[in-house]
Every structure is written in structure tokens, then in C-alpha cells.
Amino acid sequence: MVDASFIIAHVLGEDAAVEQVNLVETLRQGRLVAPAHWLAETTNALVTNVRCKRISLEDVDLILRELATYNIDIRPAACA
Questions:
Q1: Is residue 56 domain-resident?
Q2: How far apart (Å, rounded) are the C-alpha atoms in residues 25 and 75?
Q3: Separation between Cα atoms, residue 26 and residue 51, nearest integer Å
Q4: For residue 80, is it within any domain?
Q5: Does this model's pTM top 0.70?
Q6: In angstroms, rounded to a whole number, what is the distance separating the alpha carbons of residues 6 and 3?
Q7: Which residues contact 10 (CB under 8 A, 6 or more apart)?
Q8: Distance separating alpha carbons of residues 51 and 47, to the nearest angstrom
Q9: Is residue 26 part of a domain?
Q10: How confident is the model at residue 14 (pLDDT cuts 50, 70, 90)?
Q11: Domain residues for 31?
């Protein structure tokens, strides 16, 4: 299960451990499973980074294009 913080760290190049393992090809070739709230968390992280002027809207476009190359299986929330 992949979470938004891992993906955001990866696409922003913030997590040296992620980059050292060189997971780009694994991320593109493998199937990622994400929780139902993953999209909301990922979107919020991108918006926050734009508002803080850490990335531009053009960067967001590139990030979204990269994320589109990943096979992400969003799992619906389980009902109790």
C-alpha cells in the first residue's frame, strides 16, 4: 500500500531514501495499491506546495503526467 507522502516525496525529490533505491521503474512497471483518500491527500500536498511557492503550476502539470504513468489501484474505504 502506497501513501500520498511517499509519492509526493518521490515526485518532489525530497526523500533521499526513495531516490537512492531508484524506484522510478518499479513504480511505473508495478501495480501500486492506494487507500481511498490517496487522491485527496496527494492533491492537497500539491496545492500546498504551490501556495508555499515551492513548485509552480507547470511543475504540477509535470507531476500529474508522471503520476499518470503509474498503475495505481485506488481501494475503496472499507465499511465497518
A1: yes
A2: 22
A3: 31
A4: no
A5: yes
A6: 6
A7: 18, 19, 23, 27
A8: 6
A9: yes
A10: confident
A11: 4-75
Q: Residue 42's pLDDT band (boundaries 50, 70, 90)?
A: very high
Q: How confident is the model at residue 28 (pLDDT cuts 50, 70, 90)?
A: confident
Give whole-number Cα distances, 7 to 58, 72, 78, in Å. Answer: 18, 11, 22
Residue 1 in grid coordinates: 500500500
pLDDT at position 17 is 56
Q: Is the pLDDT of residue 20 over 70?
A: no
Classify residue 47: in a domain, yes or no: yes
- Tally of structural domains, the chain: 1
Q: Please count the helices (runs of H) and the strands (runs of E) in the chain.
A: 5, 2
Measured at the CA of 46, the angle between CA 11 and CA 35, to 5 degrees, comes to 80
